[in-house]
Amino acid sequence: MYIPLQYQNKNLPEVKEFLRNNTFATLVSQVENRPWATHLPLELETNSSGKDVLTGHIAKRNPQWKHFKEEEQVLAIFNGPHAYISSSWYQDEEVPTWNYVAVHIYGTLHILKEEEVMASLHRLVDKYEAQSENPVSLTQMSDKTLRQVKGVVGFQIEIEEVHAAFKLSQGREQDHARIVKELNKRDQIGDAEIVKHMDNKES
Q1: What angle do CA 62, 65, 71 make, to 5 degrees?
Q2: What structural domains and CATH numbers belong to the chain?
Q3: Nearest-angstrom CA–CA distance, 42 and 114
């Protein structure tokens, strides 16, 4: 994606933290010479070689996986919070804009074996059930229920390129206090998270 220089985030630990907290992504690849996108969770992990990977799974009925090719690049898009920024909040006249956080990951994909898929699903469920009042565990489920795993294809994407856009009113630091005040006052979806990101940039 096109990212103006002032919005590029080269802080890899910060970007990784964003990926861990925003795991629901869009996987884009080619299916019969057309772009194909699937919305799914992708977990940032480290493989046996110590390389950063994204681990996920896709339904076997989804034709996208049948066109996965080893060594062919795929694109994973992670969308974070976003918020409309009114230029009425600026000291000087300017057009309105949008603040947002987004990360594009390019990498090569390979299919996991069934036992690797099951292990990844255990990790996935345990992670997201940790905050539940009555957490579910795959270890407690019957073989009949777990046979549903045969209906998915697991994969890992070895990360090759990271393009991170953190557009947070850079270049308008003199207006940040007013922008934050107005975002807090408006309280629409995404506003509070954009404020957190702006505060982190200033701390």
Answers
A1: 165
A2: 5-202 (2.30.110.10)
A3: 17
